[in-house]
Amino acid sequence: MRTATGHLRTALWLAELGIPVLPLREGKEPFGNCPACTRSACGDRPHMKAAGPCQCAAPCHAWGAATTDPDTLTGPAWARAWRRSEAVAYHPGGIGLTVVDLDDADAVVWARQTLPATTVVPTTRGEHWIYRGAMQSQNGVRPGIDVKSTMSYVCWRGPGAGTMAALPDIVRSLVVKEATVRQTRPVLVAVPAGGGRCPHRSPAYLERGIAMAEQRITAATEAIHKTVYRTFLAVLSAHGRCGCLTEAHTARLFTAAQGKGESARHCEDAWTNARTALGM
Description:
The protein is built from eleven helices and ten strands. By secondary structure, it is of the alpha+beta class. Helix 8 runs parallel beside helix 10 and helix 9 (224-239) crosses helix 11. The longest helix has 17 residues, at 203-219.
């Protein structure tokens, strides 16, 4: 296992090559935001829609923290993160790249049969296929496949092998456009079974459910992506079919997730994927 010193050494080497990097903690997750940035107190939402980098001295905002500045990477605000780091990540969109993240053997088989050859990096469970060209990121474009480019990060696994090809249209077509994704996340409205009064209309019941979901996300110390997705899934399962949820409720959940280092894009993806899993 690489040491924290080794991770910093790798990060500095990548930064020298012009690749924006950030540390990952246990579970290959980004570090949570500092107190000044948690729950979007720093006003990061407009910033997170841009290409970064984060202006905070700490490694905040996940992909937005990625940097090539050696002074930032070795500064005191990042020292604690490097001591706790488990891996180094980079922001592919920041250098005009797209990574097709193949998370299992079936996904690798599909890629080999479908995608043009390019640089391939082995991972613990599959492969990263890297193409020249940036695009919108989206998780779950196919079973076991994520597309990571702008507003995303990828764990550094090495330079890989093979000649890097230009980003093909078939990869671009995997990703649902931003407008389409937003259209799939309206306030859900449904008539309760039997036409009776919705049992979730009690303000106290709904408030308790949202507060518990916020607490679950905020209390997570590892596997943040999975925790956010599963929490969204639970909320939608309980309240998503009766029209109780409003944009204010989803905004609270998204804010809690962003306070743990998730990007707005990741929140959108997790919400959409949870709705899809429930057949909504």
